[in-house]
Write a structure and sequence with these properties.
- The chain has about 290 residues and is an alpha/beta fold.
- It is globular, with a radius of gyration of 18 Å.
- Helices cover about 30% and strands about 25% of the residues.
- It has a 9-stranded mixed sheet with strand order 5-4-1-8-9-10-11-12-13, with helices on both faces.
- It has a single domain, classed as UDP-N-acetylmuramoyl-L-alanine:D-glutamate ligase.
- It contains 9 helices and 13 strands.
Length: about 290
């Protein structure tokens, strides 16, 4: 099967409804909000946008409702040149995240999967790299990874949101990108490598990342920035990493790029609006040589 795209992302797309408040309400309590905004989101869509802005040709595989939120999210894909021909229209409403943010920076989030819960993973765009996360059903994740491996693609799993998943999923992964908490839920680095992963990349937030392979551990240095909002930084890291692997970079080079992209993402508010372009990441890399 010919590789039509550099990266195929299988995952979630949500409309994030964000209300800011002086303090979060307690059970049964009503508080007055100070502002409201709607943002495109969902780990899958964030990662697809990151891969596209890193220079990859990208296909997104997911599901949206037949509603105004779907139109808004499809517009994001069009704006970033993401192929949406594998996005199904579901009878369920488009996924939503209801987010309350306090003046102290605390948040309270309710995610309603909606159409994301109907993703099957049966349709897959041919690509060099297939990237999947865990905001769609686990059965769909397993099916997509197995099909991608059979088609000769490099498979990348970002096991977030954190949850325990079985060997029937993990054995199809070439590269696993968990954070410190997620890697423990999956049995640790050694367990993941023993199941056949070529690499485990543990992200450490402001401390960079660690690349674990059969040859040992290599630290990936962080980039110094002043964070404004860390939303979407992990997704930017994963999408950028996949794009650079598809472009032919070796893993350490791709990880340095991903680390720079993730750092830049934290310097602006929001997820999709803050994902940097290839030019911005390249400029940062050139400045830090």
């Amino acid at each position: 099967m010919a590789n039509s795209f550099d990266v195929c992302v299988v995952g979630s797309a949500n409309l994030d409804l964000v209300a800011t408040v002086d303090r979060l309400p307690g059970p049964g309590e009503t508080v007055s909000g100070t502002s409201f905004a709607e943002y495109p989101g969902g780990k899958g869509l964030n990662q697809a946008v990151a891969a596209a802005r890193a220079g990859a040709t990208v296909a997104f595989v997911g599901a949206l409702g037949d509603d105004a939120a779907a139109a808004a999210l499809r517009a994001v894909m069009v704006a970033d040149g993401i192929d949406a021909s594998h996005v199904a229209t579901s009878a369920e409403p488009t996924g939503r995240a209801l987010i309350g943010v306090s003046a102290a920076g605390e948040n309270s989030i309710i995610v309603v999967a909606g159409a994301n819960g109907t993703v099957t993973g049966e349709e897959l765009a041919a690509a060099k790299v297939v990237l999947v996360q865990l905001e769609v059903p686990i059965a769909a994740v397993a099916r997509a990874l197995a099909s991608a491996r059979a088609a000769g693609a490099t498979t990348v799993l970002n096991p977030a949101p954190a949850q325990a998943i079985g060997e029937d999923v993990l054995r199809w992964c070439d590269i696993v990108v968990p954070n410190e908490h997620e890697v423990e839920l999956l049995g640790g680095v050694d367990h993941l490598l023993s199941l056949g992963a070529k690499a485990v990349v543990v992200t450490l937030g402001g401390d960079g990342a660690e690349l674990h392979t059969a040859d040992g551990c290599t630290p990936i240095a962080p980039f110094a920035v002043t964070p404004v909002d860390t939303t979407g930084a992990g997704d930017t890291f994963c999408g950028s990493l996949s794009a650079r692997l598809a472009a032919g970079d070796d893993l350490p080079t791709a990880l340095r790029y991903a680390s720079a992209a993730g750092a830049l993402c934290t310097t602006k508010p929001g997820a999709v609006p803050s994902i940097p372009t290839h030019a911005a990441v390249t400029e940062m890399l050139n400045r830090t040589h």
